[in-house]
Specification:
single chain, 250 residues, alpha/beta, Rossmann fold, seven-stranded parallel β-sheet, two-stranded parallel sheet, 7 helices, globular, binds 1,4-dihydronicotinamide adenine dinucleotide, binds ligand LXAUTJHC, carbohydrate metabolism, NAD-dependent glucose-6-phosphate dehydrogenase, NAD, Glc6PDH_archaea, NAD binding
């Protein structure tokens, strides 16, 4: 990818994981609605803008070859007015501007909460090693909250912009990103742990692989898991290095 890559939500946890590993690998254009408190941490230009601001996003995306779209309200308790504006309107605005600017591909931060209700009738067994149940990305969403609804909506917006405008789009249903080690005393979190370096590698794959429309799961290669990594491996070449079992007693 020779053209600049727009990274929305660059100041957050996922943005940090990506930039920690890939700062020098792309010409980044970082964007967040809040000015950075530590500007030296960011490579390239930093754009202060809200993803719901149509004009600002059109300017920000101009000349970019790809977008990694992370910006949004990440709270599983987020109220409808916030996810409607930040997550749904914001994502539509980013995708529309990307298509108009001729951007080739968008990687979108979706969430485990888009499919949370598959767990309802299977927990806690599915969090445990030996349980064979897997979600693989081909299943319909079953959101666990309005935040999950907004993430499923982002996946659907990507489907539309891919089918109608030929935009390459990948939705990464991110599990539980935590730095250093998986969460303790939280089986679900261990089953869907995503380490910082695997997160960066996965988004690197999203920026280099050839694909049309994909939904993949973003977790490390945990012994405990109920998300299949097959599509991330096959469609993107994802090769995770970490496993929550290396940190926990099962
Ligand atoms: N951290 C995790 O384990 C997971 C994260 N995700 C998704 O990944 C994305 C990033 O999550 P985190 O980095 O953890 O969240 P975060 O809250 O640390 O970062 C989000 C960033 O987006 C910015 N932002 C929020 N609304 C904005 C708007 N309207 N315009 C411009 N910037 C805006 C915030 O200022 C913040 O810097 C989110 O979309 C979240 O839903 C999904 C699943 C798990
Ligand atoms: O989508 C998200 O999921 C993670 C993990 O969810 P949790 O139910 O295990 O807390 C969450 O930490 C993050 O804030 C959210 O954006």
């Amino acid at each position: 990818m020779d053209d600049p890559v727009l990274l929305t939500g660059a100041s957050g946890h996922v943005g940090t994981a990506i930039l920690d590993e890939l700062a020098d690998d792309y010409e980044w254009r970082c964007l967040d609605r809040d000015p950075p408190t530590d500007p030296d941490r960011f490579p390239g230009e930093f754009v202060v803008a809200d993803v719901t601001d149509e004009d600002a996003i059109r300017d920000a995306v101009a000349g970019c070859g790809a977008v990694v779209h992370l910006a949004g309200d990440p709270r599983k308790t987020a109220p409808w007015d916030s996810v409607l504006a930040n997550n749904i309107d914001g994502t539509q605005n980013v995708l529309s501007a990307a298509v108009d600017a001729g951007v080739e591909r968008v990687a979108f931060a979706s969430s485990n909460h888009a499919v949370k209700h598959y767990e309802t009738e299977r927990k806690p067994d599915l969090y445990r090693t030996g349980d064979e149940f897997r979600l693989d990305g081909s299943e319909l969403p079953r959101p666990g909250n309005l935040y999950g609804v907004s993430k499923a909506s982002g996946e659907l917006l990507g489907r539309y912009y891919h089918d109608e405008h030929d935009l390459s789009f990948v939705a990464v249903r991110i599990g539980n990103l935590t730095k250093g080690h998986p969460p303790k005393d939280y089986e679900r979190g261990q089953a869907m742990w995503l380490s910082y370096r695997d997160c960066a590698h996965l988004f690197d794959c999203c920026l280099t692989a050839e694909y049309g429309y994909e939904i993949v799961y973003g977790i490390s290669d945990n012994d405990r898991k109920y998300y299949s990594l097959e599509n991330a491996k096959e469609a993107l070449g994802y090769e995770p290095l970490d496993n929550s079992a290396d940190w926990t007693d099962e």
